[in-house]
Amino acid sequence: MERALVVVEGTEATKAIVRQAAEITDGIGAELILLHVTSEDEFADRADALARIPDFDVDYGVERAIDGAQQFADDIGREVVGDAVEFKAVGRIGDGADAILAEADRLDADHVFISGPKRSPAGKALFGDTTQQVILGFEGPVTVLTA
């Protein structure tokens, strides 16, 4: 492993997988990248809500949303590993597995760490599952921590 990508969200499972990935990457000298993806719906909802605030003159565009996602990933990393392990935080806007897989490809990640809900195979088939799509779509090892 040379470059590990950890998908971070606002859950305790995310903190656990960041901790595990940091321990592994630090032990073998691999690069650790934390990725938070803001969905297109979240972006649109936030932009719409901010636009409705009277006298609010801040332009909430794509660049600001990406910065916010990156800051979120950085905050999780600082909370979990502090300065003990070096990492890079990345933020993106997109939806589900497609955004994660595109970023893994762009960053040339060779391992993905992701947390996901515990679902039965039937539940995954009926409701879709980002974690399963990443497992099937990534051309390398994927470590999954189920909540």
What do these coordinates show?
- The chain is an alpha/beta fold.
- β1 (3-7), α1 (12-28) and β2 (31-38) form a beta-alpha-beta unit.
- The protein has six helices and five strands, in the order βαβααβαβααβ.
- The radius of gyration is 16 Å and the shape is globular.
- α1 packs across α3 (62-81) and α4 packs parallel to α6.
Number of domains: 1
CATH superfamily: HUPs
Shape label: globular
CATH architecture: 3-Layer(aba) Sandwich
Q: What Rg do the Cα atoms give?
A: 16 Å
Low-confidence stretches: none
Order of helices and strands: EHEHHEHEHHE
Structural class: alpha/beta
For the secondary structure, the number of strands is 5
Name of the level-1 CATH class: Alpha Beta
Largest beta-sheet characterization? 5 strands, parallel
Overall helicity? 40-55%
Quote the beta fraction. Answer: 15-25%
Instruction: Record the strand order, biggest sheet.
Output: 3-2-1-4-5
**Annotation field: number of helices:** 6
* CATH fold descriptor: Rossmann fold
